[in-house]
Write a structure and sequence with these properties.
A hairpin with a 2-residue loop joins strand 18 (about 665-670) and strand 19 (about 675). The chain is built from 21 helices and 19 strands. It has three domains: about 5-150, no CATH class; about 185-405, no CATH class; about 430-680, no CATH class. The strands form four sheets. It has an eight-stranded antiparallel beta sheet, covered by helices on one side. Strands 8-9-13-14-16 form a five-stranded antiparallel beta sheet, covered by helices on one side. Helix 1 (about 5-30) packs antiparallel against helix 2 (about 35-60), helix 5 packs parallel to helix 8 and helix 14 runs parallel beside helix 16. With about 700 residues, the chain is of the alpha+beta class.
């Protein structure tokens, strides 16, 4: 991304060649003995393999390889961490600590994982960043080679110095990729490839599994009209997001497109559709390096994970070098980069996401050898995310932006894939007008209430009271948004940002999957809308269970508020999950429409609370704030949590959802898993 003069390029190429020559020597040296010697030989061999690929790409011979040859190269690059191979990989912190000892294990497992990022630099021809990581490896080899008993501390110091020294350049490069449509490695692949020739999948550098191959084959087999229809549903949802929010799309020029590799025919058509709206595509890769990653989440375009446990083990690798000095340096580097790109950044219209579902369900192993953040680092990182979000609001003008999300299954979901895909397309294109009318009946009733009561049944012990904002004029104001298929596809929910004071109770889900992680017997206790206690049964140890929730649901915050309460109405999507026995695999985007749900974290209107929003009936949605988000006016650093995670209770676990009036009169909306409010009976037809 960074542009160099010819003289600078010549110097970088010379540095690269010196580094790779030294690495070839290390591969054959015997100075470092035993387990450490084997580690450095193994990693040197891997780096030489990446160099061979980089050379083929630079020379153009890589692009002429056969499909079988490309598959063999892709497998060789990722073989070390695929499936059971990961058990004996140095990227596995448990194995690394067992072989190399605690003194070196975590550090060298981190190093090998970071060096795997050179795969991406090879494919993107980013020789400068490729070079500096090779030089880091050589430096650490030297520290081990001349170990005087302090090499462990020296290695950690070398890594911290490296990250601080190159922070500005790494952050600038990532910011450019995420901001300027001109810097899109993926666009040429999408727009210029022959999708009948599946070799195009191997031009990214990402791991390509059977899922990507089968997805690409299937999508490419669809009629042109169906691909155009899928893209139109996706892109028109983005446009409608601006319309319903009364935002001006004409002042924007760029949209961030995110997808999983294999959907390129749909993405190509989406790019063309967006172009007609005056928008270029910002298409950036999901983060590979510790400095950029947000835990195990993949934000950007990506392939399947070679190993989800690998991703989970390295979600907090930033802990190796995270301190206040680095946080301040990274935040300043981000500010400087955005200031340099402020004219481009201000043209940002928002993200448009195609999510996938159907991957094998994952319950992670919590390894003691994996890098964890201490309490001080947890606070530093959460503060950085909050400060960085405020910077983004300022430069990307997030209060003028919108978004859209749509989901499709992938072949990994099983033998019913094609039937599930067809059913998903149906769910994504349900009758907006019908749902609008039914949902308005629910909203009109909810707006009469002081509270909403949610009670589980059977194994679900939920018992919640959600406090609603008082309405000054019920003829002009409403608490709930009537959500049809615009930004959140598919259709089917009414939602609000509840008052915190007065919201209380127990939220319990026997089993739920959130951000690809399983939670068994999840319990959250609320007092005045804030989480005051939490537990699950993932592990034998209560301490480990609490740590799991704090890291992955609370994102290392001490507590989170209820940012959203909603009632999902898409019974068709719910029955799709039941029919094909895929309910646990449905993405949050669809799952949230299949029952009531609570979101932990920021409100639905985060960073846009002052923008007036109206339902189609003309009423203003006034519940855009809560007591926490209102702090943006006096103490903005405490107003946001930079997370919003929906937790859904499926219909078959609902005993009651009722509106409680100020005079204690109760009007049921759902009773014993069925809609009972007059005017909502049509929703029960899917159950029958």
């Amino acid at each position: 991304m960074i542009e160099y003069t010819q003289e600078e390029l010549d110097e970088i190429r010379e540095r690269y060649q010196l580094a790779i020559n030294r690495i070839k020597e290390i591969e054959n040296e015997t100075v470092v003995k035993g387990a450490l010697g084997k580690y450095f030989k193994k990693v040197a061999s891997f780096l030489r393999l990446v160099d061979n690929v980089a050379k083929m790409i630079r020379e153009g011979s890589y692009q002429r390889l056969s499909l079988d040859e490309l598959q063999a190269i892709n497998h060789s690059l990722y073989n070390d961490i695929i499936d059971d191979n990961y058990i004996t990989s140095y990227a596995n912190p448990t194995y690394a600590c067992a072989r190399l000892g605690k003194r070196y294990g975590k550090l060298l497992s981190f190093l090998y994982t970071e060096l795997r990022g050179t795969i991406i630099y090879a494919y993107e021809k980013q020789i400068y960043f490729h070079t500096i990581y090779l030089e880091l490896f050589i430096q650490i080899y030297g520290l081990i080679q001349w170990d005087d008993g302090f090499a462990g501390k020296d290695i950690r110091r070398a890594i911290k110095d490296f990250m601080n020294d190159y922070c500005e350049e790494l952050v600038y490069d990532r910011t450019r990729e995420m901001t300027d449509p001109k810097y899109s490695f993926a666009r040429d692949i999408i727009m210029e490839s022959d999708f009948n020739d599946l070799r195009y999948l191997y031009m990214y550098g990402d791991y390509i599994s059977d899922s990507e191959l089968k997805t690409a084959e299937f999508i490419n087999s669809l009629p042109k009209e169906e691909i155009e229809s899928m893209a139109e549903t996706f892109t028109s949802g983005f446009r409608r997001g601006f319309e319903v929010s009364n935002l001006d799309l004409s002042i924007k020029s760029a949209v961030n497109i995110r997808y999983q590799i294999g959907f390129e025919p749909v993405i190509r058509q989406a790019i063309l559709n967006f172009k007609e709206m005056g928008l270029d595509g910002i298409i950036y890769r999901a983060a590979y390096l510790a400095i950029d990653k947000k835990q195990h989440l993949k934000i950007g375009y990506h392939g399947s994970s070679p190993n989800k446990q690998y991703d989970y083990d390295h979600r907090f690798d930033i802990g190796i070098f995270l301190d206040s000095l680095f946080v301040n340096k990274k935040l300043e580097a981000r500010r400087v980069a955005l200031e340099d790109m402020k004219n481009i950044a201000s043209q940002y219209a928002g993200p448009a996401l195609i999510e996938v579902f159907g991957e094998e369900l994952f319950s992670p192993e919590d390894k003691p050898e994996a890098i964890k953040l201490n309490k001080s680092q947890q606070k530093l990182l959460t503060k950085y995310y909050n400060d960085e979000k405020l910077l983004s609001k300022e430069y990307y003008k997030l209060d003028e932006a919108s978004f859209t999300i749509i989901s499709f299954p992938i072949p990994e979901i099983g033998e019913d894939f094609q039937a599930i895909f067809a059913e998903t397309v149906k769910v994504n294109t349900l009758d907006n007008d019908k749902y609008y009318r039914i949902q308005q009946k629910i909203i009109d009733t909810l707006d009469k209430g002081e509270y909403v009561r949610i009670v589980g049944k059977g194994k679900n012990r939920t018992n919640m009271m959600v406090k609603l904002h008082p309405l000054s004029d019920s003829n002009k104001e409403t608490n709930f948004e009537n959500c049809v298929a615009d930004v959140n596809i598919p259709v089917g929910e009414v939602f609000t940002s509840p008052k915190l004071k007065g919201s209380h109770g127990l939220l319990h889900v026997p089993l739920v999957y959130l951000n690809d992680l399983a939670y068994h017997q999840l319990e959250l206790t609320f007092t005045d809308g804030m989480i005051t206690d939490y537990s699950c049964k993932n592990y034998d140890s209560e301490e480990r269970n609490k740590s799991f929730i704090k890291e992955n649901l609370l994102y290392n915050h001490e507590t989170l508020p209820i940012g959203e309460f909603a009632i999902g109405t898409n019974t068709t999507a719910y029955m799709m999950g039941k029919k094909f026995d895929i309910a646990p695999r449905l993405p949050i985007l669809i799952a949230e429409k299949t029952g009531p749900h609570f979101a932990m974290g920021d409100t639905c209107y985060s960073m846009r609370e002052d923008l007036k929003v109206y339902n189609p009936d003309g009423k203003e949605i006034v519940a855009r704030d809560n007591e926490i988000s209102l702090l943006r006016k006096t103490n903005p650093e405490k107003a946001y949590f930079n997370c919003h995670t929906d937790i859904t209770l499926p219909y078959d676990e609902i005993g009651e959802i009722s509106v409680v009036m100020a005079d204690k009169k109760i009007i049921p909306i759902i009773k014993d898993s069925r809609f009972v409010l007059e005017g909502t009976e049509d929703l029960n037809k899917a159950f029958d």
